[in-house]
Amino acid sequence: MDIKALIARAEQDCAPVFKRLEENEMTCTRYVLDAFHEENVATRHFAPTTGYGYDDIGRDTLERIFARIFGAESAIVRPSIACGTAALSLCLFGLLLPGDHLLSATGAPYDTMETVIGTVGNAPGNLREMKVEYSQVEMCDDQQKIDVDAVLSAIRPNTKVVLIQRSRGYAWRASLLPREMEEMITAVHKVRPDIFVMVDNCYGMFTTENEPTHFGADVCVGSLIKNAGGGLAPTGAYLVGTARAIERIEARLTAPGIGREVGSYAASYQPFYQGLFMAPHTVAQAVKTSVLAARTFELLGMKTTPAFDAPRADIIQAIQMETPERLIAFCQGIQAASPIDASAVPEPWDMPGYTDQVIMAAGTFVSGATTELSADAPIRAPYTAYLQGGLTYVHGKIALISALEKMVKENSL
Ligand SMILES: *Cc1c(COP(=O)(O)O)cnc(C)c1O
Questions:
Q1: Ligand 1 atom showing the smallest separation from residue 370 Cα
Q2: What CATH number belongs to 44-269?
Q3: CB neighbours (10 Å) of residue 39?
Q4: Helices 393-409 and 270-299: crossing angle, nearest 10°?
Q5: I need a labelling partner for 354 at 20 to 30 A (CA). Which of 37, 143, 210, 256 fits?
Q6: Vertex 146 angle, CA 213 and 294, to 5°
Q7: SS3 for 236?
């Protein structure tokens, strides 16, 4: 097989899609820049703080910038929030009280949320132990849309939070564009303005020119080692939304009565600012990588989602590899092209909390950062690989070539 010719053909087909992505990058960069200007960002905002961190201008200004970008009233942006799951958990524990009901509008949530809610395992301190009720509504039209009527009829008198997961995560469903959430958000708020609509925005930020808060979501939550950190933020997460929601959440972040007033960071805030500035570009590079992979495997006659020219709401590309050998070769080829740990050979393993074996390819500067090129998959038919990230498109392309070469070498293409 002529891999070079295949990639060249795929790249040619992708040109109009890339042009759209560049336009989106321009729009997003523009509003990030506007927020920086409105907040008069200067070198002094990078200065580290210690102890309580009272009047930490780096922290407070970064939070105001996130609020502006999301068109929201308030934000929590902290290096001290360990990961996306921790931020989502913080949000739920902030908004829900014992006896309240949590409703997922997009079916089963991301794997790690199951242990937070208590639908999987029995982790001490989960929402079930806190006497929070939970139920979920499946998406309709072949997992393409939120079933608004079903959501409305699943609302109980004690429903406090409706959860939307923007990204497909690791399921074969559609990712949701922010504007596709509007109908449900408006309908829920019309009957029950007191309900918080919360969006798991992981993998989604900057793939579109608007965020779910622009369509009425009460809170958006995401990780800084995914899209929002631009590949530079070393750790942390964000929660952005209405003052009413953030006020409750910040009480859980530190303590009631103290909220966002405290919290220091003894290193520089510079990578958070620079990462946010870079993020629309990095996200565009990652999405271009996904689009190229989609087209390449489509040309090889394989099933992928989304289609290369479909609108994108997140950075993930799902590709059905059909055989375990092909899936493993693909992941090993991606790993071999990583800047870090390239000599590691990923193998399927029994990861805690997963029923099937899992294979993961990632050689990243920031440990576990999936804004950097990575691929993972459960070893389960139809052997779907989930590809995401890529700090530069050129690296994404090189890694794709490496993966194809490995697949050819293992006679799996
Ligand atoms: C990554 C992700 C999470 C969890 O984030 P971590 O930082 O890995 O804890 C939650 N939801 C979605 C949709 C994600 O993509």
A1: 1
A2: 3.40.640.10
A3: 18
A4: 40
A5: 143
A6: 85
A7: coil
Q: How far apart are CA 24 and CA 30, in angstroms?
A: 10
The C-alpha atoms of residue 410 and residue 112 are separated, in whole angstroms, by 33
Assigned token pair, 21: 């992505």
- The 10s digit of each residue's pLDDT in 6-46 is 999 999 999 999 999 999 999 999 999 999 999 999 999 99
203 lines ligand 1 (CB under 6 A): yes
CA atoms of 271 and 59, how far apart (whole Å): 12
Could you write out the DSSP letters of every residue in 329-383? HHHHHHHHT-SSSTT-----B--TT-SS-EEEEE--SSTT-TTSSEEEEES-TTT
Q: Whose CA is nearest to atom 12 of ligand 1?
A: 202
> Is 3.90.1150.10 the CATH number for 3-27+276-409?
no
Please report, for the chain, the start and end positions of each structural domain, with discontinuous segments joined by +: 3-27+276-409, 44-269
**Atom 14 of ligand 1, nearest CA residue:** 202
Kind and range of the H or E run holding 63: helix 57-69
**How many Cβ atoms sit within 10 Å of the Cβ of residue 48?**
14
Mean pLDDT for each consecutive 10-residue tract of the chain (413 residues)? 96 98 98 98 98 98 98 98 97 98 97 93 96 98 96 98 94 92 98 98 97 98 98 98 98 98 98 98 98 98 97 97 97 98 95 82 95 94 96 98 97 88
Helices (H), 194-319: 243-253, 270-299
CB-ligand 1 contact for 84 (6 Å cutoff): yes
What CA–CA distance (Å, rounded) separates 175 from 49?
A: 39
Ligand 1 contact via 212 beta carbon (within 6 Å): no
